[in-house]
Amino acid sequence: MSNSSWFYSDAQQQQHGPVTFAQIQQLAATGQIENHTLIWNQGMPSWIPAQEVQGVFSPAESPAESPASTSASPLESNPYAPPAQGGPPAEIVDSAYPIPKVKRCSFALYISLFVIGFMLYGLGMSWMSPESRNLSSPGVTPIETVEDLEQYERDLAERASEAQTETYSAKVLGALGLGLLFIMSGSILGLIYLYRAWFILQHGRPRTSPGKAVGFLFIPLFNLYWMFVAYSAWSPDWNRIRRSHQNLAHLPSSSNGLFLAGPILMIASAVPILGFLAAPAYLIIFLMMTHKMCQVVNAMADAQNNSSV
Fold first, then answer.
1. What percent of the chain is modeled with pLDDT above 70?
2. Relative to the CA of 77, which of 51, 124, 210, 263 has its CA 20 to 30 Å away?
3. Measured between alpha carbons, how far is 205 from 89 in angstroms, rounded to an integer?
4. Cis link prior to 18 (omega < 30° from 0)?
5. Which of 88-102, 104-118, 135-149 has the highest mean pLDDT?
C-alpha cells in the first residue's frame, strides 16, 4: 500500500494529492498532517482520520493493509466521494449534528436601526446649515454716517452669535445624538449576530470560538487580519459542517466568495479615491453577509425547536 496513491485534506477542507505513503509520513512528521486530518486512498471506502491509519505517525509501523483493518463507519454504505469523483473531502461523522439552542436573529430590526440612525443624523446636519437657520446677510441699508456703519457691524455680530447658539441647540444635538445611538445599536446587534453565527458551529470543530470571533475585532490593526477569520472563515466552516451531516442538508448554504469580498472591500474603502467606489459596495455586501448569517442562525433555531417538539 505504501506505493499507492494517497490524498489528504488541509484545514480549509481542500484535497491534495496524489502522494505516496512515504510523503504522507513526511507531512505528518512536519506537522502538516495532524491526528484529525482526513486521508484516503483507492483501497478505502471513505475518508478517515490519519491517526486511524497505522504507520502515519510512526514510520516503523506499516499502514493498514486493508479497509477492514480500520474502524467501520455507519456511513460505509454511502461513502463520501473520493478525489477520483471530484467530491470534496468531508468530515466522517457517526451521528447527526447536535442542534444547539440559539436565539433567532431579526435582520429587519438590524437594518431598521441603521436606516433610522442615518436619517436622524442627516436631519441634524441639515438643521446646522445656514439655509435652515435663515442666516441671511443683514438687509442692505445705505451707510451714510459713522453711526450707520456701527449699527451694521452690531447686526453682523448679533447674527453670528445667534448662529453659534442655533448650531448647538438642543434640537440639533438631539437629532445627532439619537442618530449616533441608533447606528451604534445596529453595530452592536451585528456583533451579537456574528457571535450566534459562530456559536452554532461549535460542535463541528470550527476555526475559532464565538468570543474570539467578536472580541478580537476590537484589537487595533490586528482586526484588519481578524476580519478575514471572523467573517470570511465562517462561510467555508458552515458549508463544511452542513455537507458533513445529513440532518443539516436542508439548511441554507453560504457563498464563500461573498464573505471573502466583504473584508476586502472594507479595507479598500479606506484607500483614497478607491474608497469612493469601494465604500458603497462594502455596505451592500456587508448587509448581504449579515442577512445570510441571520438566515442560517434562524434555520438552526427552527430546527432546534422542531426537534424539541
1. 72
2. 51
3. 15
4. yes
5. 104-118
